[in-house]
Each structure stands twice: as C-alpha cells, then as structure tokens.
Known about the structure:
Blueprint: E1 11-15, E2 20-23, E3 85-88, E4 98-107, E5 112-123, E6 135-136, E7 162-164, E8 171-177, E9 183-189, E10 197-206, E11 213-222, E12 228-232, E13 238-239, E14 250-254, E15 262-270, E16 283-285, E17 291-294, E18 298-300, E19 306-314, E20 322-332, H1 340-344, H2 347-352, E21 358-361, E22 364-367
Parallel strand pairs: 15-18
Antiparallel strand pairs: 1-2, 3-22, 4-5, 5-6, 7-10, 8-9, 9-20, 10-19, 11-15, 11-20, 12-14, 12-19, 13-18, 15-16, 16-17, 21-22
Amino acid sequence: PYTYAEHTRAVRYVDKALKRLTLNGAWSGGTVVAGSPVINSYAGGTYSYIGASNVLMTTDWIKRSGSTGVFGITAIRPGTKYIKVGFLLNRDAGTETSYIRNVKLINETRNQSLNFPEHEARVVETGVMEAVDFIEQGNFPAPDYLDYDPWVIGSWGSQGVFTQNGATVENQIIEYADPWGNRAPTWFCNPGVDNSADGGWNATFSANHTDKLRFSVWVKRTGSVDGNTYLGCWGGATLNLLGTVNGNPYFWSGDLPTLDEWYLLVGELHASDYTGGYGGVSGVYDMQGNKVITGTDYKWSVGGTQQQHRAYLYYATLVTALQYFVYPRVDIVDGSEPTIQELVNGGDSLRQLHDKAMEIKDKVVTIKNQFVEGI
C-alpha cells in the first residue's frame, strides 16, 4: 500500500529516455530507493489561460493565441490522459455578447489541427451558441473524389451519388463504431434471401484517364460469411493491364479473412498509358496495415472521363450475413494522397469527428469528443 509523506515537489520535466524527473525545487525527503511506488498528483489551479487572461474586450476583432509550455503553469502535466480546451467569455459582464470565429487548435509537434474555419460562433450571456460544427481535421486530406458527408443516419437507400445496390430495405445508413471505435455514419448491408444484390452502391464521378486512381473502402462482415464482398470500378472505361476490355472489373471479391474484423479494401486503376504489371498495392489490408489478400490492378481506357466506385454485398442467402462499409475514397495517386498506413492509422476517422463538439456551461465553452494526439 502507498504511504503518504509530506515530501512533495512539483515535477518540472520528465525525461522518458533517461527515466529521470526534474523537479521545481530541491528534494528534502532523503534518498528514494529505486522501484519505490509514487503517486502522480497535482495541486493548484485546474485551468491554464494560454491565450489571454482578464483581458478587456473591444468592439474590434482581435486575434488571440498561445501555446502550452514545457515548464510552468502553461505546461501539460506529466501523466495527463486528456485535456479540454475552453473559452471563459463574458466574465463579470451583464448582457453583452461575445463572438468567436476561425478557431484553430494546432498540435505543434505533429502539425495536426482542429479547425473552425467556415462559421462564426455566437456566444451570449444565456449560453446560446450557433454554428457548432467543429471538425477535427488533423491535416488529413479529403478524398479527391466521392463525398460521403450526405450519408444521413437513419435513412435508407441511395445517398447522393451513391446509388443503392439491391433493394432499399437492404441499404441503411446507421451510426456505428468505425475501425477505431468512433461513431460514424456507416452503410449497413442488411440482405434478404434472394441470392442477388444485397447492399452497397455504384458511385459515379468524372475523372481523367491520364490520372492514376486509388479506390478504397473499409468493410466488416458479421454473422456469416454467406455471400461475397466486392470492390470494383466501372467497366465502361476500364481495361485489363494487357489492354483487353473488362466490362465488370473488380479489384477484389470474395470472403474476408475473419468475421467481426474491419479490413481495408484497396484497388489501383492506372493511367491509360500504363504498360507495367501489378503495382503491389491492390488487395485487402488488416488493421495493422498488412496486405492479407492480393488484389487485381486495371488501367483506364484511352479517353475515359467517367468512373465508378462499386462496393457490394452480393449473393447472400442468409439474413444473418451482415456487412458494414465506412469511409469510401478515390484518390489521385500523385504523391499528395494519404499512404495506406495513414489510412490504417485512422486519418478518415479523425477527419469526420464533428457532431456534439461543444458544450456551454456557466459561460464556459468546452470542446469535447475530440482527439488531439500527442500534444
């Protein structure tokens, strides 16, 4: 059991490499034997005002900024598991109204950011706030093609450019835990017993045959391996690598390795002038970024201007064979696209975290349900 002592000193710095603590003051408690249990605790105020403190507001827009430090009151204490970022506005005020806009929280070490770029937040004395769609962006790029933001939780059937595959009752948008445990709009394939199309989509978009494209989507199966999972592109502008026409091209189809596990399906569509072979990317990836099944590459037909992202559940005859899709993407492969490992690390999950991002209580605005790694 722990024993309490009066010998306490604030930790100023933690050197993890050398396993050494630097204290704010001299230690007066004598020698502490290596391996002795200690308790990490804190004292003092619970807030660090890094942007401004007791500042009188004006009628002009004023930029305020600040950074957490390594030492002192602005430092994040060693052992901190999470932080909340907030704004204490209108303190000691009457009925005045304060406005905040263009909020950006930046992880200076890893260049991640939490942006509020497009809207102005209005906070009044009674705690009313408008435009509360903070978005954790993390500097992670959006897809070059396909926008799954129109997926409406609780709705059925087609969603924007995502045209349903199968009956409407076999295609539902639900809120579901993504591969990293975050709740996200998810395409739920709920099959009938007709041994045909059982959920998924054809998503059509305009593109250029001179661009190499990478198609991807996360998928998970539960209940049964009955039926097949598919990821493909459009047969109207796609050739096999040898140059022959393929009217029904799939980067991969079949059974996923394991039920109840998320996998990343990836397919590469090379530019129309491509003359090489399999590029080594298309296939099925596990949550560690390992390619567990090899897929098939294709190339554009010359002059192609349209493609499709096709993701399906097909030929299921058991209603227990459920399938979930999340984060479909089509990226131009030009060096600016996220790597496979970045996809596996959850960049899309961070990018979509947005709902219920703020809370107002006693005139304190607190950002919540956000993850800023490594601050």
